[in-house]
Structures are given as structure tokens and as C-alpha cells.
Amino acid sequence: MNRALPWITGAVLIALPFVYKAPYPMHLMVVVLIWAFAYTSWSVMGRFGLVSLGHGGFFGVGAYSTALLWNYFHLSPWFGVPIGMVLAVVLALVVAYPCSRFRITGHYFALVTLALSAIVLQVATASRDITGGSLGYTPERAHAGGGLIAFQFTDKLTWYFIALGVWAIGLFIRWKVDHSMIAYALEAIAEDEDAAGAAGVNVTSEKLKVTALSAAMTAFAGALYCQYQMFISPDTVSGISVSLQMVFAAVVGGIYVLPGPTVGAIITILLAEGLRIFFGTRALGWDNLVYGTLLVVFIIFLPQGLVGVAWNKLTGRRQSA
Amino acid sequence: MTVSGGRPMFDIYLLEAAINGILLGGVLALLALGLNLIFGVIDVVWICYAELIMMGMYGMFYMVSVYHVPFLIAAVLTVLLVAALGVLLHLIVIAPLLNAAPINQLLATGGVLAFLQALATVMFGIDFRNLGIRMPVIEISDMYISYARLLAFGTALAGMVAVYLFLSRTYTGTAIRAIAQDRQIMPLMGVDTRKIYLVTSAIGGGLAGLASCLLVLQYDVHPFIGLTFGPITFMICVLGGLGNMVGGFVAAFVFAEIISIAGLYMDLEWGYVFAFVFFIVMMFIRPRGLLARRT
After folding, report:
1. pTM, whole model, 2 decimals?
2. Which of B114, B231, B287 has its CB closest to that of A291?
3. Is it the case that residue B10 has pLDDT exceeding 70?
4. CB atoms A289 and B115 under 8 Å
5. Are the beta carbons of A106 and B102 separated by less than 8 Å?
6. Cα gap A255→A42, rounded to integer Å
7. Chain A residue closest to B242 (CA)?
8. Which pLDDT value is given to residue A149?
9. Which of A2, A307, B136, B206 is most buried, most CB within 10 Å of its CB?
10. Domain locations in chain B?
11. For residue A271, what pLDDT is reported?
């Protein structure tokens, strides 16, 4: 049963649009999948106690570099996205290397990485002659027939399959990392850095590997978000709010289990959309009110997240957090 | 003002920016002090610290502009109100998590950040509001120094001196400093840690309240104002060495000067960018803070 479950889920998701493809639920699915991929990317490192609040920065770098390269140099996102990912990795390493080298961990690490997302937000806002500042930025529409090169698709169905594929690859990468030697090393580091180092684990190198991977994936998510929404602004793709949004959704779903961040994405996005539909513009702020409360409640009572708790109930064992 | 007679007027602007930087530094130091106190004693980072200030600013706005409470009385009430918020925050969120992983405490206060922002949006709307009090501007030989900033600087310094005296001269203050040094031993010495944590949370909140009374004179209040002060405050604390109050004091002025002087030549946002980059570079050089002792 456990082995078949991913395949069944995959088959259902692939078959879904052939049965039912109203535009609005389709749009929701795409948004959920893109964010689920972003949250999973965060959890790749977050689950090892490397709680980064800089991922809003990586997301923003991915989104802005793709859009800027396309508009100014007509560089196709097929090249622009990898460049954005490389930039995000460089940024991640510049911060993560000293952090790891000088043993900046725990909340120090969170606060230092927080500076990173604040920098990206401020740079995007400050260079308003280039990025449009806080008013936002739009990639230029491709000429007719140039959609593939520009990575712009008007068809929701295409986007659904792209997002689905990316999300599945994201889950696969996380699964690979969880079942690799790196995971053992990082779990040992999370328990006790000195002991792990003494046992022959190269602490810095292991941490940097997983950080680079996570940053690259997050930048990719940012680029994808930009190409899908065709509009980005500093507040929606970078900064503390985006970082906290990632951490929050991942925690609610559960960061120690593979589907956790995805479930977090489903819950948070459906909650926001639900409140918006029922309350209209009066709902402004209500979704965050619920989020904030839930986050506090979850951290106090259910630090393993919804899926984590369900998983433990099903398998009848307590996974140590 | 024009550049005339071949004498560049440039240095007077620079001096003005430097002085404004010092004045800004006073307020930033006050913000950092509250956060450092909480961290040093309770070993918790209140990510939502700037949101407490935002609530205080709304308190000031409603009391002064809507209910016409005299400014000073409103200020005292605001300090008490935010101090109470600090105590509530500790009781509801931090106390159940005292033995959890530090990062969980930080994330829980992150939830409070989202909650307070949303609460302000729901209760007060997203309009920018201000007290509508125009403070005079002092002109000293072509330099313009805002009276509001001068007042904020003076009050912030007075507040810091008061906290210093409290910590060094009173029994409770001594107990607070002792707990900051050794969390395990002090309960054995007969100190009630729970009471000390509550007092510390109240003081931390009170300092946020004091800061909000000063900031509301210079800035419009809106639900997201915390994002303007929050990151900079955390960076000052980390740069000074989390929990190191003297380090935070020094770092506040360094940051304020960078922001103020870079803001003279470019947009204000670039001032922040430079300050943040400086912060990351300093992490390479002095990872445990400006005044860290070599271990």
C-alpha cells in the first residue's frame, strides 16, 4: 500500500484535468503546486535544523533575474532561469559559508539569513529605475508563436502539467536527499555538531551542499512563479513575509515528512482563497490572522505538523523531532 | 541653497547627515536594548518586536488624535499597554515553549508577527495615519535638525540610563543580570525565574512602548511599519552580539550612520542595503558580534 500510494496519487493528478478543468480550480492547483514546490525546497534544509529566513531572498532572485534578463537582454528564460539559480546559490554560499565556518547556528542563523531576504527586498525596491520598485514588474509578452522560447503559456492546462512535473521532481529530490548519506551526516550535525565533526563528518561541506541545493530549487520556484503570474513585486516575491510564509506552511504540514510542505501549501492557499471568496475585500487581513494563530498553536502543540502527526498515528510510532 | 563662491556646501550636508545619524542611532539603540534584554535573560528572540512597537504607535494615534488624551499621559499609558502586551506574549507563547528548541520559539513569535500585522489590518485598516503634530525644525548654521528627532534621541538615552540603573542598582535588576549569566544555577539560589522572566518581558515591552511614542512623532503608522524597523533591529542586535547590550548600543550608531550618510548620496533604501551588506561582511570578520570576547 505504502509503495503504491505515490503512483496512485500521481496517476490521479495526471488524469484530473481530463475529467475536470474549470479555469479557476485549475489556477488554484497551479498556484498550490508552485508554492508546494517552494515549501518543499525550503524543507530540504529546514528539516535538518537549518532554519533559514533567507529563502524569500532566493525566491526573489530567481523571479527578478529571469524577468530582467528577458526584458533587457531578450535572454530566454531557458537560460535566464539557470542564471538566476546560480546567482541564488552564490548568494546562499556567501552567507552560509561564514555561518557554518564560525558556528552560527539556531536563531543566529535565522537572523543572519533574515538579513539576506531584507537585502533582496530593499535592492529590488531601491533600484526602481530598473525593476519598477514597489510598483512591480512584468515580463514582456512574447510575440505570437514565441511562447515556448519565452516560457510563457496562456493555456492553464500546460501550466498545470509543468507545475505538476516540477513539484514531483521537487519531492523526488527531497526524497533522494532524505535517503542519502548526506541525511545521516546532517542529522548527526543537527544533534551535536562537535560530535559529528569528531566522527569524521565534514560539517561545513555537508551544510553548504544542502543549502546550495535548497537555494537553487527556491530560485527556480521564484522564476516559475514569475512566468506564471507574469507580474512580480518586491513584497510578493521577497522579504521576511515570503520567508515566514514558507516556514509557516512547511511547519503546519510537517517538515519531517515528505508530503508535509505540500499539505501546508494546500491548507494555507485554500484558507486564503476561501476567506477571500466568502468575505470579499472585507477579508483583508483575516487570512493572516488565522495563519498567525495557527502557526503559534502548531508550534506549541503540534511541532511535527499535521502530516507528521497523522503519519505517526498510522505507523504507530513516535518519530523523534 | 546654492553652491556659490566656489566654496563647496557639501560638507555641511555631510555634517547634517552625520548628526541625523547620531539622532537615529539613539532610537535604534533603544529598540535594540529591549530585544537584547529579552534575549540575554530569557534566551528568546522576539521576531515580532517591531510589531509590538506598531501596536504602541496605534495606541498613541488613537489616544492622542481620536480621544484627545494629552500627549504625556498617552505616552505613559502606551508604555504600560505595550509592557502588558510583552507580558501576555510571554505567558501565552513563550512560557509553553521555554524548553522547546530555540528555533521553535523564534518561529512562534513569527506567528505572532503575522497575527499582529493582520490584527492591525483588520482593526485599523491599511491607511497611513499620523498624529498631525508638526514639530519645529531647528536651524543651526544652514543645518536642519528636526526637533522630533532630538526629542527622541534624548528620551531614548534617558530610557537607557533608567534601564541601566535598574539593572545595576536594584535587587530585581541584579537577579535579572544573574539569570542572564547562568540560567541553571539561579533557580537553585532561590530566585523565582518565572517572576524574573515576567519582569523582563514587561521591561522589554515597556521599552518597545517608549520607542513607539518616539517613532509616532516621525513616521506614519500603518500595519506593516514593523517591517521597516524589524530587520534593522535584529541586525543591530546580532552585530553587537545577541544579548550584549553595550555591543548593541555601539552597533546601533554604526548602522544609523551608514543609513544616514548613504541616504545623503542615494535613495534611503540604498542606505539600508549598504547597512545590510555591511552586516553580512561583519559576520565574516566578527561572527560573534562587534565587541565579542575572543574565546
Report:
1. 0.85
2. B114
3. no
4. yes
5. yes
6. 9
7. A108
8. 79
9. B206
10. 15-130+148-285
11. 83
